[in-house]
């Protein structure tokens, strides 16, 4: 293909539909001198135990 030639293939790109549930709320974050911040867990959403060969790992999803 020649340099600078653009190719558009129909059907590969779909228009994005807005979804109100995907909106992220903006809140003020206190940042320390070392550019770190602390987050406080609000609620445990899900808990699952993953079993490996010799270990059991507890996975916790926190809001």
Secondary-structure map:
Layout: E1 44-51, E2 56-62
Antiparallel strand pairs: 1-2
Residue fraction in strands: 15-25%
**How would you characterize the largest beta sheet?**
2 strands, antiparallel
DSSP strand tally: 2
Cα-atom radius of gyration: 22 Å
**Residue-averaged pLDDT, rounded?**
77
The secondary structure category is mainly beta
In order across it, which strands form the biggest sheet?
A: 1-2
- The amount of helix comes to under 10%
Compressed to H and E, one letter per element, the order equals EE
Q: What is the straight-line distance between the termini?
A: 49 Å
Number of helices: 0
**Which parts are unreliable, with pLDDT below 50 for 5 consecutive residues or more?**
none
Shape: extended
Give a description of the structure:
This protein is mainly beta and 63 residues long. The chain contains no helices and two strands. The chain has strands spanning 44-51, 56-62. Strands 1-2 form a two-stranded antiparallel sheet. The mean pLDDT is 77.
Structure, briefly:
Helices cover 0% and strands 24% of the residues. With 63 residues, it is mostly beta strands. A hairpin with a 4-residue loop joins β1 (44-51) and β2.
């Amino acid at each position: 293909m020649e340099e600078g030639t653009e190719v558009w293939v129909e059907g590969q790109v779909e228009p994005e539909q807005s979804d109100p549930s995907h909106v992220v709320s903006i809140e003020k974050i206190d940042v320390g001198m070392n550019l770190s911040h602390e987050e406080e867990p609000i609620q445990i959403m899900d808990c699952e135990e993953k079993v490996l060969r010799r270990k059991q790992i507890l996975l916790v999803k926190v809001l």
